[in-house]
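thought: fold this chain, then report.
action: predict
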Amino acid sequence: MSRLSYVIKRVGKMDFARMQDTARMLHKKTGKPTAWLLADMGKCALKYNAGYMDYKIAEMYRLNDTQRRSVITRGISNEIVRRMNDKAYWHYFDDKTQFNTTFAKWVQRDWIKCDESMTQEALNKFLSDKDQVIYKPLEGSSGQGIVKYQQKDWEANPGLFRDQLLENGDGILEEVVIQHREMARMCPTSVNTVRIATLLGDKKEGIVYAFLRIGNGRVMDNVDCGGMAARVDLDTGTLLTVGADKLGNTYEKHPITGTPIIGFQIPFFEEAKAMCLDAMRVVPQVRFVAWDVAITEDGPRFIEGNSFPSHAVPQFAAHYPDGIGILPEFKKFLDL
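observation:
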């Protein structure tokens, strides 16, 4: 593709309304002229394949060209996924029943598929020894559609509860994961998962990054649902950075529990790494996976694996105070 064709294609894909909204918001935050921000955003889109959300989250408006080249933008992330992950095999991760079946060795929890084939008898049996369960859409991301149910929601009328589940659409009902007491000390309202990304790369294989995703009062720890993230030291399993959320807020301590974030030690981190390194070879056609790992009193457990990992979490500006982003870490694994 010629440079002119590339520019035309990129311009055609720009969401100018969202860019203007972002520029106005950043003008209030930084004092920089809205017109300058819009022009700079366009420059980053063309030169670094950055979307308006990349520009905002990585605070590209304060970075020089060298620093900007170190950010894993949407376009770069999409290209990595395209190269590394054969779409014909995404279903092992995108379909939650297939994931739980394929990686049952490391999931280790009871579940049932919620669709028209689920009989009342099977549902009653599944619920018989549980006091709370989690419903998840069969396919989905960013924590959308996840609902936590208590025993009171089904004990009075199990038939009505089944109808309600089916109204939610095809999904999966799982027993609730009880996290390690240390993880609950950080935030008890959600299961705070460690996102560990593995790569079967051109140059080498292993773990690219790890972040702890931390809830902020809701059932989910997802950053799209108000949660935050902090970078994990791969050697020690301790948190290296402040917590940061998608709005640009930063936290040295958890705002609800007061637990210090920097220096927090994740239990069973070595075991979590080993689990991910074993699992990354189960479906080798999907070479770049971001695993969401819960830490229980008995060790790590998979919540899910992502065949199209979000590039938002590993590029929050607060995690890179020197302005050098995470792309150099990917270049250790891949020819980019």
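thought: worth noting. The first strand starts at residue 111 and ends at 114.
final: tokens above.
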